[in-house]
Amino acid sequence: MKRLFVTTSIGGLGLCALLLVPLQGCTDLNETPISSITPSNFFHTEGEVLAALAGVYAGLRNTASEGEYWGVSEVSTDEMVVPTRGSDWYDNGTWLETHRQTWSANSPATLSFVNNVWNTAYAGIARANVLVEALQSTTVPNQAAIEGEARFLRAFYYYLLMDTFGGVPIATTTELKARARATRDSTFRFIESELLVRRRSTSPTASSTQGCTSWPPRSRITSAPTMPLRPRTSS
User: Fold this and answer.
1) CA distance 148 to 128
2) Euclidean distance between CA atoms 127 and 67, whole angstroms
3) CA–CA gap between residue 55 and residue 38 (Å, rounded)
4) Which residue, among 103, 73, 61, has the nearest Cα to 163 in the 3D structure?
């Protein structure tokens, strides 16, 4: 009996020691990242700047999906209807609610489709702000044209927001702070001013490296899209 008690005691002490070791190793949670992208170590070459610009373009693909801006702007009108057959395409009533325009603050259509429009557009705006801000402290080839593309894309994302929500908060820097909602008129004037300025900085035609000379196409913004978008912002 005594031998069993001693064996059990030794085992218990060993278990306690093992439990204490991880606790001692978790007191310092500070980590030094092996690598990270910051304005101080990135945006120094045209390739790095174009990589950041590609991120601004990347958000456009989401705007054209069924649960994003395209879906909301089409299904909520008489141009399109999504039939519900049994449980197919019901999705908790999201499609019916969108088509009938009966959504509310916490309804399925708002928490999915409408919310996606907001998040996707502001994600693109945030990426554009990072790039535009970084370009103020670096020098790379074709810098004015690249900044023009980023600012046009930012204006386009704001156009999608204005078309969906009317006036929205306008952010043009990376500063994290609460921003009041601008009026629709102020949002429109901001978009228009960006288009007017950027029309003079972007190229009027796409170069061979920017055009659809390969598949998949690698098209980029020129000054031409600013002309049809201006009338649309005031419609």
Assistant:
1) 11
2) 21
3) 15
4) 73
Number of CB atoms found within 10 A of residue 168's CB: 23
Q: What is the DSSP letter of 49?
A: H
Which parts of 122-192 are beta strand (E)?
Answer: none
Q: Which domains does the chain have, with CATH numbers?
A: 42-203+218-233 (1.25.40.390)
CA-wise closest residue to 94 among 113, 122, 80:
113
CA-to-CA distance for 181 and 190, rounded, in angstroms?
A: 13
| pTM of the full structure | 0.77
Calpha distance 159→201 (Å, rounded): 20
At 41-71, the pLDDT tens digits run 899 999 999 999 999 999 999 999 889 999 9
Residue 39: asked if its preceding bond is cis (omega within 30°), the reply is: no
DSSP label at 88? B
How far apart CA 127 and CA 190 sit, in angstroms, is: 18
C-alpha 169, offset from chain centre: 15
